[in-house]
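User: These chains co-purify. Model them together.
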Amino acid sequence: MFSSRAFDNRLVNVPEQSIPPFLEEPKSIKDSVINNSRLDGRDQVTPRLLFIKTGLVDKAHGSAYLEQGKIKISCAVYGPRPVVKAGAVISATTGNLECEFSFSSFSSSWRTVKQRDTEEKEISQILTQALGPSICLHMFPKSSIDVYVTVIESDGRLATIAAAIKCATIALVDASIDMFDVVTCVSASLFNNSWVIDCTQAEENEEDSSILLSYMVSSQEITNVIQTGKTSIELSQNGLNLCVDVGSKIYQAMCQYLSKSL
Amino acid sequence: MSELDNGNALSFSTIVTPSTLITQDAAFMKGHGTFVEKEKIYSSVSGTVDRINKLISVKSLKQRFVGEIGDTIVGRVTKLSQKRWMVDINSRQDAVLLLSSVNLPGGVQRRKSESDELQMRKFFKEGDLVFAEVQSLFGDGALSLHTRSVEYGKLRNGVMIKVNPLLVVRSRSHLHSLPCQVDVVLGVNGYIFIGKKVEKDKLEDISELLEMYSDTNDEIDELTRSNIARVYNSILILDRMLCRINDTTINCAFELGLPYQTSQLTNSEIADEIAVQVRIKIAST
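Assistant: Joint model of the two components:
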């Protein structure tokens, strides 16, 4: 300890023994979800609160911005306009719907460069499938409707896709494109035996199974369902029914905004 | 499902969202912005319900321009195809200008030859502005244009501005000469062309290819340029405030903007002021 050498300025003088500070045991997210005490205070069947605003992108024919918790999504819709995409099938009886989905590189907790290409293409397909049946495409032959969705911040993969579908629908209505109905979308995750609506990324990391449901309330038609993981038929049906119920409530909120925004 | 009324007493200006049930009464006909399912009329866009006698339609502010036969339109050539030009008219599809629908030099009755087809670029090429009239509709809704008259054809010596198509009302004449030596061509599709005044006697001479389809602009003096810029800004003001755009309102806005410098007209406060005064003036006349 005491040496004849002079003090070395590069060394930090530390005590001989060191004890780590007392840390609280981190709560298991899965446990807190099952016990109905989620980190943000919601119960199992409440989705995050929505914030919607239309008309933010001047140049586009219709646009919408949506926030749900930490998720922030912007969508621009162009159309109906002459088909722009090279190699697209131009039909004389119906129009085309082209959806393009992209994550910003700063949207999640790790910076992405171009690795998300295939994922973005897959999600674009999901968007097209979810929105397609709700648009009166037979009224726009040889034209195309282009939907561009940009995720500014994401929180939960399925929840972000659900928010994107809602945002795209609102943008389509803002563009005055003829539609059969407004599409709502709900995501749910399974923890042991209970379905939990609208999970954040932290919650989704611990899920057993998940559902993404896109639903047109007035005509009571489901446009798109995606389920991952393994569940029993009964559990699966419970999940779908729960999503349909929550979807109807979200639908009312969206329609309320649309009529007020006029 | 949200329902508006029993279907008997429909109120004007009721705001609807897509898939709102408007009426179950089978006596009504469906118009724009609605769709029918199982004899019930639902709205397909977000807007206000408009009932004219037995026709129910839903009107919204942002609908795309839909052309009808007889509309006078300003458009920009986007593509050349076999014996036709595709013209962008701010609508769902590009309009079609057939080679047989334009005036070719050498007289009206001249037969179209193969060399005409190969030389289409000499008449209109990509980016040219065309003033035309809608002749007919194709089966899929695309418009077919023609320029078979002296006042239609290629536009030059000016600038094009895009406004909301709802503001340009269909009227008998769309080519207006403003007192400030500027000509304004109001396209019903929302494209407006502002240019140097065209001398009337030059319109008679349609036999020269160089005259009709020339691409070179004339010499435009500074006063005319400044007036064109003023008219441009005046129309921008009218568009922002959703005022109707016709020669009366343009003149009104132009005169009210004279005290200011041309560049000041883009200032939003001054623009709002002028727009309010235009509204008052029009309402009083």
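Chain A touches chain B at residues 61-62, 79-82, 92, 136, 140-143, 173-182, 216-219, 255, 258-259, 262 (CB under 8 Å).
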